[in-house]
Amino acid sequence: MEVNNQPILRVEHLRKYFDAQRHVISRAKDQIKAVDDVSFTINRGSTFALVGESGCGKSTVARLLLRLITATDGKAFFNDEDLFAMSESEMRVMRRDIQMIFQDPYSSLNPRWQVRKIVAEPLDTHNIGTSAQRKEMVNDILRIVGLSEDSGNKYAHEFSGGQRQRIGIARALITNPQFIICDEPISALDVSIQAQIINLLRDLQQQYSLTYLFITHDLRIVKFLCDQTAVMYLGKLVETGSTREIFAKPTHPYTKALFSAIPIPDPYYEKQEEPIEGDVPSPLNPPSGCRFHTRCIYAKPICSEQEPPLTEIAPNHSCACHLLSEF
Ligand code: SF4
User: Fold this and answer.
1) The domain that contains 45 carries what CATH number?
2) Most exposed residue of 56, 84, 261, 277, measured as fewest CB within 10 angstroms of its CB?
3) Does a structural domain hold residue 153?
4) In a domain? residue 317
5) Axis crossing angle, helix 131-144 with helix 115-125, rounded to the nearest 10
């Protein structure tokens, strides 16, 4: 499918702070700034990658967009409709168009239900079709994701990991959504199966004009599948842009470090190492200024004093770093 420049999702200054109790006696509260002033736009028919290490806040963004948790601040517009201003019943209707594929296909599938019932559940929830039509729709979608009609009569434990993820994809697709959030959809699968699921997602996107928000820590997949990329660190976006541009010229020291960790299957390729120092700090009272300064090998005094703004450095490429002129 052709990607156009029409936004399907606009996220503006999204924040999610969780209260965390610090002092047993005073009961004073600290805040975990899981998502802090995150803005991005996803165009219809495209795949947008949200990339970062575990705990950086990318899955929290997904839960906010689905309204599984409430945003502290900010807005999200889906087809120009304000997701956070919708009533519960309006949001229920909207969820036909916004579906999710989960990381662990097994734990997201009810072990006591036959696959047919699992896949049909969104049809029941949204009251779509008669019972005969639902049966037909389930058979169709199982076939489309590469499973037989007979699969519908089995239980999740009777399938391999890859087949279970196909069931998860079938359930996400059954309402004919426009937008699918894929939260690490292949990280729990064997490497040999990952490519099959990625190819399936890509084929389905072309066939059904789908838009994906693809949450992952795996940059090899991003390069293959995603049009736009946003790199997230401790609740903040540190680099955004077209995937082609970011892979050609990764600029933020964190992005460079992530890229230098990608395995290259070429024994003669000399990789430029960009080490990261230390561990990811706690999002509870994160580092001042640039949140990456405690691990950045380039950090200067200004880095701990002032937060660098996300600045455009080329068309469709922005980076948040004080030392842009030096890279
Ligand atoms: Fe490193 Fe400073 Fe740039 Fe942050 S602002 S990434 S600490 S050089």
Assistant:
1) 3.40.50.300
2) 277
3) no
4) no
5) 120
What is the span of the domain harbouring residue 181? 7-97+177-251
User: How many angstroms does the Cα of residue 146 sit away from the middle of ligand 1?
Assistant: 46
What are the residues whose beta carbons fall under 8 Å from the beta carbon of 125, sequence distance 6 or more? 92
- So what's the pLDDT on residue 279? 79
Tell me the pTM.
0.91
321 C-alpha vs ligand 1 centroid, how far in Å? Answer: 5
CA trace torsion 118, 122, 128, 133 (10° rounding): -20
- Count of CB atoms within 10 A of residue 267's CB? 5
**Residue 249 CA, ligand 1 centroid: distance in Å:** 17
- pLDDT for the residue numbered 320: 98
Q: Is the pLDDT of residue 26 over 80?
A: no
Residue to probe by mutation, ligand 1, list 252, 258, 321, 324, most atoms within 8 Å of CB: 321
**pLDDT digits 0-9 by tens, 291-302:** 999 999 999 999
Q: pLDDT of 69-78, one tens digit each?
A: 999 999 999 9
**Burial (CB count within 10 angstroms: exposed 0-12, middle 13-18, buried 19+), residue 140:** middle
pLDDT above 70 for 174: yes
Average pLDDT score, the chain: 91
Q: Is residue 48 part of a domain?
A: yes
Query: Ligand 1 centre from 324 Cα, in Å?
Result: 9
Closest among 99, 93, 98, 101 to 126, alpha carbons compared: 93
Provide residues with CB under 6 Å of ligand 1: 252-253, 290, 292-293, 296, 298-299, 303, 308, 321-323
Helices (H), the chain: 58-65, 88-94, 115-125, 131-144, 161-173, 191-208, 219-225, 243-248, 253-260, 301-305
- Domain total for the chain? 1
